[in-house]
Amino acid sequence: MTLLAFDIGGANLKAADGNGYVEHRAFPLWKQPEQLAGALANMIGLAPPAEQIVITMTGELADCYQTKAEGVKSIVGSIREAAAHREVLVYLTDGRVVEPPIAIEQPLLAAASNWHALAALAARYLSAPRGLLIDLGTTTCDIIPTANSKPATQGRTDPERLASGELVYSGVERTPLFAVVEAFQLNGRPTPLAPEFFATTADAYLLLDQLPEDLQNCDTADGRPRTKSYAHARVARSVCADTSLMSYGEALAAAELVRDAQVKSIVKAVKQVTGHSGQQPAQVVLSGSGEFLLEQVIEALPWDLETVSLSNMLGPEVSRCATAYALALLACVND
Hints:
Blueprint: E1 3-8, E2 12-16, E3 22-26, H1 36-46, E4 52-57, H2 68-83, E5 87-91, E6 97-98, H3 100-105, H4 107-110, H5 114-122, E7 130-136, E8 141-147, E9 150-151, H6 158-164, E10 167-168, E11 183-186, E12 189-192, H7 201-207, H8 228-237, H9 248-277, E13 283-287, H10 291-300, E14 306-309, H11 310-314, H12 316-320, H13 322-334
Parallel strand pairs: 1-4, 4-5, 7-13, 13-14
Antiparallel strand pairs: 1-2, 2-3, 5-6, 7-8, 8-9, 8-10, 11-12
Helix pairs in contact: 1-2, 5-13, 7-8, 7-9, 9-10
Protein name: Hydantoinase/oxoprolinase
Pfam families: Hydantoinase_A (PF01968)
GO molecular function: hydrolase activity
């Protein structure tokens, strides 16, 4: 049976068929939940023909929903509408793939289930008794320990995973800069960042040449394109300045501070996660749109790790949509 897998997030929609097709598009679910079914139907129409649709999600956390249960029910309803005559299945954090009514009845198992699908796939690449998956995306970082080729997490829900260090709410595109660092150097003086949505990590990595410029992409703090010149302006605004008050060199130094702070926070979380078992991992799988930063995380860890890059193995686009790709492969096995 042909299938198409979706990872339905609060800001992005990702699709994959497990045979090389992947698609990623920004979708601000929290702003327009009523348009989700149409967006999914459009993606289904552009993808290779599929008889079955399988989903995982994190979008239930979007603040357009009062509760996770409401979010799960709404998202499941949207995919059923978009799928039309196709069979729909939902992946749960206990590894089951179930029909929609069961997912709606058990919303906390359906909620935030994408990490489990990816971890189950990543474990296949780990031959050592102890391994680790680190997936860094636009918004969050998942740090998933494995034992004997199976996920071995302390937490299952988002709050549990935040507490255990297995979920770090920091990514390489959407995280506000004031959530990463406290101050930038401006005219030789440390200047605190204003706690306003003036700039994001995407601006830092644009300036550092680790994300490409894109004139068509206006998913930014000020709605202007993702270019270095606009990124300079956004970073300057984060300390209540502009490009006449903060030089390009100062903005570049600020971006380096953001990079270093994110690396430090992820390294800290990795040590917390591995500390639960008391054993350091021998292998690590890296994935997500932020793989470029994870390379520096690995260098900063005090261990000799064998690394597996999904971007190198499967290509950067598949790595960016790794959760959907993983779900497609798992669903094929379970079919």
